[in-house]
Amino acid sequence: MAPVLLVGGWTVATRMQPPSFDPVADTVSALAAVGAADRWVMTLTFLLVAVCDTVTAAALRPAGAPGRLVLLAAALAGMLVALNPEHFGGSVSHAIWAGIGFGGMALWPAGAWRRGPSVPWGLRPGVCACVVAVLVALTAWFGAELITGAGQAGLAERAVGLAQALWPLVVVLTCRFPSRAISGSTAYAR
């Protein structure tokens, strides 16, 4: 549900903003900022996505405990992002919780990997390392956009946010529907 909620939430919230709102340049947090039109939509979205991540962290038993704890911490940070909206001129508490949330969502696969022949694809060490690299790169792009003001902070935040929301779903699906050998070296996914 998290990817659907996130994209649906920012899409609805964007449509409720004045025409001056630019989703490529303006961040998702601006949709929940003090003074934003119908800011409750994005605030509720942040909370619901954080609840999804909390449930995933609790239920994803095949994943390593350190990764599940980091995912839980990132989810709690997401709730605190919702409860500490941006203000005109910036908000230190919002930035801190958002940084913790983005960092945790990018790094949780590093603690979730497992070894063994029956480990689901989404929890294998090589896969987790690649995913962490991609998520960290996307997070760095967003950070660079915020720092440089290059005009694509909204696009970068949406890209990293969607990737971070999709990965737990992918892991859950690989745990729920593991590959099975049909013959010798051929495998399929249900």
Integer-rounded radius of gyration: 18 Å
Strand content: under 5%
| Ends distance | 20 Å
Per DSSP E runs of 2 or more residues, the count of β-strands stands at: 2
Question: Could you say which structural class the secondary elements and strand pairing correspond to?
Answer: mainly alpha
Distinct helical segment count: 6
Strand count, sense and barrel status of the largest sheet are: 2 strands, antiparallel
Mean pLDDT equals 92
Q: What are the low-pLDDT stretches, counting only 5+ consecutive residues below 50?
A: 181-190
Task: Give the % helix.
Answer: 55-70%
Gross morphology is elongated
Question: What order do the SSEs take from the amino end to the carboxyl end, as H and E?
Answer: HHHHHHEE
How do the strands line up in the largest sheet?
1-2
Instruction: Provide the domain count.
Output: 1
Can you tell me about this structure?
It is a single chain. The chain has 190 residues and is mainly α. It has one domain (2-174). It contains six helices and two strands, in the order H-H-H-H-H-H-E-E. It has a two-stranded antiparallel ribbon with strand order 1-2. Helix 3 (65-83) packs antiparallel against helix 4 and helix 5 packs antiparallel against helix 6 (153-176). The longest helix is centred in the last third of the chain and has 24 residues, at 125-148. The radius of gyration is 18 Å and the shape is elongated.
Short précis:
By secondary structure, the protein is mainly alpha-helical. Helix content is 64%, strand content 5%.
